[in-house]
Design a protein that fits this description.
By secondary structure, the protein is of the alpha+beta class. Helices cover 56% and strands 7% of the residues. The chain has two domains: 93 residues, no CATH class; 184 residues, Orthogonal Bundle (Cytochrome p450). Keywords: Glycoprotein, Heme, Iron, Membrane, Metal-binding, Monooxygenase, Oxidoreductase, Transmembrane, Transmembrane helix.
Length: 311
């Protein structure tokens, strides 16, 4: 059975796009769809995560829907996800063809959105190597300690702005560990850092259900002038220039003999050990911010709110 995987926002909510279903094995409960289009009309114009969570509450941890005849399995519990994605990972280790987020906006370069091809394997090796426990302990923990002290000081000085302080602290941790570019307190972020934040926000907005209609109607990619193409091309141009600029600056700092402990610096110091090329490397580093900023910021904000209401 060939299949592919698309991660949604919550850690326990994933979507499996199945190209051929075994009838006896996949008789999951499902929301009723319409002829030809299936359940597409229920997704258009809605925020996808709350809708999928609603379906898993109503129909169980494994839900079956169709998008223009394409079978899709929604996995809404950690137990079901572990069974499918760990125990049976060889069957379900792929990804759907995300035409908007992967091809149109990122040229097939961003690891979280591409198929399990040779590029994916090269970049995954890079990421897993740099995120191994020893590397995290050696390089991430000192940066985290500094940023947490700054965060606490800022919140004490101005409690009403605590949300923005948390977001800044998370962004600074990522930018420092990846590029040696801490965000200074009281200083406006450089334009390149603003671009990284913008790329993250625009990507999250673009993949909301109802906006990525080309994924449901793939023939649209062959039609000139379809509305999604121009902003997608502009996004890809900005992403390419931003991620390359950050890597080029890290290279310049290293060549100038400045202190450099970031992931970018380590990659540049030992190019002979890298299977991925220079372009794959700077796109891979871009995925660190996209993967970590929103998740960590929102989680920290929730924790802060809960602690403040503990009484």
């Amino acid at each position: 059975m060939s299949s592919s995987l698309h991660q949604a926002t919550p850690p326990n909510l994933v979507i499996l796009q199945i190209s051929r279903l075994q009838q006896a094995a996949w008789r999951a409960r499902n929301p009723k769809g319409l002829p030809i289009i299936g359940n597409v009309h229920q997704l258009l114009g809605k925020s996808i995560v709350p809708l999928l969570e609603k379906w898993t509450r109503e129909y169980g941890p494994v839900v079956h829907i169709k998008l223009f005849g394409l079978p899709v399995i929604i996995v809404g519990s950690s137990a079901a996800g572990k069974e499918l994605l760990e125990t049976r990972h060889q069957k379900y280790s792929g990804r759907p063809n995300l035409l908007l987020a992967s091809e149109a906006m990122q040229g097939g370069m961003m690891m979280p959105f591409i198929h399990a091809n040779e590029r994916f394997r090269r970049v995954r090796k890079l990421v897993t190597t740099e995120m191994r426990p020893a590397a995290v302990t050696q390089y991430f923990n000192p940066v985290q300690s500094v940023e947490i002290h700054r965060l606490v000081h800022s919140i004490i000085e101005s409690p009403k702005d605590w949300k923005s302080y948390i977001a800044r602290a998370i962004a600074s941790i990522i930018m420092t560990t990846v590029y040696d570019r801490p965000l200074r307190t009281g200083q406006e972020a450089d334009q390149v850092v603003k671009n990284v934040v913008r790329l993250n926000d625009e990507l999250v907005e673009a993949i909301e259900a109802g906006k990525n209609y080309v994924d449901f109607l793939p023939f649209l990619r062959y039609i000139p002038g379809v509305p999604y193409k121009k902003p997608a091309a502009e996004y890809q141009k900005l992403a390419e220039s931003t991620y390359k600029q950050l890597m080029d600056e890290a290279k310049a700092n290293l060549e100038a003999g400045r202190p450099a402990n970031s992931i970018a610096a380590r990659l540049l110091q030992k190019p002979e050990e890298q299977e991925s090329d220079y372009r794959e490397q700077y796109w891979a580093l871009g995925s660190f911010y996209l993967a970590g900023s929103d998740t960590q910021s929102v989680s920290s904000q929730i924790l802060m709110y809960v602690r403040s209401r503990s009484e």
